[in-house]
Amino acid sequence: MAKNKNLIYIAVSIIAFLVLAFLYSTPVFTGKQLFQHDIVQYRGGAKELIDYRESFDKETYWSNSMFGGMPTYQMGSRFEGDIIKKVDSYLNILPRPVNYLFLLFAGFFLLGMVAVRNWKYALLGATFFGLSTYFYIIIAAGHNGKVNTIEYFAPLLAGILLVYIRKKYVIGFIVTTLFFGLQVAANHPQMTYYLFLGLGFLFISELVRAIKKKVPMKHFLISSGIIASALIIGVGMNSQRIMANSEYIKETVRGKQILTNDSHKAGNSGMDKASILNWSYGKLETLNLFIPRLMGGGSQQGFSDSFENKLRESFAAQTNDEDQIEQAVQSVESQIPPYWGDQPGTSGPAYQGAVVCFLALLGFFFAPKKYKYWILGATILTILLAWGSNFMPLSDFFIDYVPFYSKFRAPSSILVVVELLFPLIAIVGLYRFFNNETLQEDYKKKILTYVGGGTLGLTLILIIFGKTLLGFTNDNEKEIPNYILDVLIEDRFKLFRIDAFKALIYVGITATVLFFSLKQKINQNVALLIIGAVSLLDLWSVNRNYLNDDNYVDKIFAENPFQTEGSNYLVEKVGDNANLQSILASIPVNKTLETIAENDKKHYRIYNQVLGTTSETNTSYFKSSIGGYHAVKLRRYDDLLNEYISKPDSIKTPKILNLLNTKYMIFGNPGEPQVVPNPKANGNAWFVSDLKFVNTPNEEIKSIGEIDSKKTAVINVSDKSYFNNKPVQADSTAIINLTKYEANELEFKSQSKTPQLAVFSEIYYPHGWKVFVDEKEVPYIKADYLLRAVHVPAGNHNIKMIFEPQVIETGKWISLLCFGLFVVLSALGIFWMLKKKKENVLLEKTL
């Protein structure tokens, strides 16, 4: 009876998560969809991939839509043997973001049930975790892969705890394997990497417990073997994705450096330190976990309602010119954000909740040792790593010596580990506070008094003396006149003070409830209900600043953000929605791009300077682009951008644009784009008879800005042997033309009287591309730092290029094999469990 009752409560909790998720996302009831910046960019960059899929009912693993051309592994490509990804799609069947919110709640509920085996605390912890502000910020931004990965954090940890703590080997294996496989399938390795940095402390904790004979060493070894097997199979189920990405990453900005310059040395792995540490959390900024607008909140969040009037009054004391005052006010509001922290900018704070932080602090005193020490260690490490450039001894060590750490940027995002562990230690400690009889009441009162009093006292000190202690300005604002800076500081302090007072109230209520529960004035259920309600009010109200009804738009805008025709109806639908106004502003550029693409259907590239070459995919939506928007670009192309596009040169940059077959250039402004045809573009392919051999990559990239690329090709000396028995001779009548274009297959016809080197305006990638001359596969080399080139004998020839990466086929069979192994082992394990249970029942009957 008790078991059935418990199942009912669990079912009710699941329904509660659905209700919460839908209540937070009420616009989905009217058919509206989230408008997410990164997803808009994805739709543009992946347009060629999606069109190919719809046209041919198969996948292309190469697209020329962005940055000259790149594999689609990180652009939403699908893998044939990817069964685990299909499981993920079924779990995420609810409309976005209801799916994410529900799985965040439900996943932690499973973790809570494993940790404390009580649905009430699991439900409370689920709201603590599922309402973490950072998740709502990244959902609003469109970091879907990131939140998709994070939603499997808690159930994965639940599986590991089932094995190590609960000794449920079979169920633990199944849960760990399934959710690790799902997490890897979500395809955000950085989040998974950060999680396992934290979980390393759990492994160390269990090892220490085994050494101290708190648990049998045999159990530790068996558990570790089971977890290791689960992780290996979880990786194996994603072999296609992992193998393809592993091959790809080596050639990207996350792989080895090619050039040597002031910021890095050739051969060094990963990004340079400045790029890695660019988004480092400030030491003081860590208090954002407790007070959301300690640092002003988000860069675009806005000041208080009274800020503009006070600013206007300040300017009025300097001048009587109303127009000048108005311009000055608008200038300050547009250029100076409320955020004043160490990061270049932020969408919002990693707010965990005042109640959650307070309970987590208590948890470190009340939770059992098997939880609190490893959680404390993981928390300290991840906070220190989040500081990045503000704590260089540790950052230097991890970048230089810890494998793969240098592959990732924005160390502030490692705080997701804290956002998982704080709710966990909070509910484990709270459960023990209420239910463990070994904790003496005097000890509880003492800790509650010290931690509660310390938290409230520190908050009160910050409220009273915060302006002096914190400053509310940064070094970059030293040049701002005092009459402006004073208004800024005052308003930032006001925003902070509002949130600090709220924290004071929320913590005060929580501490009071706990105190009265000790006095038996409030029973446990009422106490949990009050704590849950206060935390829900706290987190819900803060989260609405970052993800709210304004983030939803009509389906037509969400699915087709690249509008090309304006109308009064469209203007009316857009209204004052800032997200949609950006769509309206881009209509003239989109129309221009559409017109170019419709009038000239050949294969070429467009250089769009109007929208920001490396920060838009509008161009990619209509035609192949010189630029794009993607964090994992090919290293050679990124080098080219840095050398010639990011800092344009009137002589050298046009040479590079010609090399990249840039047939059209767009200048001007978004409202009045100007199309400039480029008749000097090299075309899709050309013959060269002059070869310039250079010794280093630095010489290669320097030379391509100096040569006439239609006559000369720059070749690294490492490829000099390619020309043994392959002479190259001039022929002014030689021609080569593109005759067929698909994203992953190109065909050319050539005619020449002499042997030639054909250079193709196609990006060099050493894996998967095959080149055929008259149906016979031939080797190809890299020319002009980043293009493909092949030797073509005299005569008439058909040249074909096909992208068929072997890693996809190999990975498919490994993925299928591992998923099959998971199913078989799970079935055998369940059969063994049932058999053992049956034997135990029979044994009990005979006794």
From TrEMBL:
Keywords: Membrane, Transmembrane, Transmembrane helix. Signal peptide: none annotated. The chain crosses the membrane at residues 7-25, 98-116, 123-143, 149-165, 170-186, 192-208, 220-237, 350-367, 374-394, 414-435, 447-466, 500-518, 525-542, 813-834. Pfam families: YfhO. The keyword Cell wall biogenesis/degradation does not apply. It comes from the Bacteria. This is YfhO family protein. It comes from Chryseobacterium terrae. The keyword Transmembrane applies.
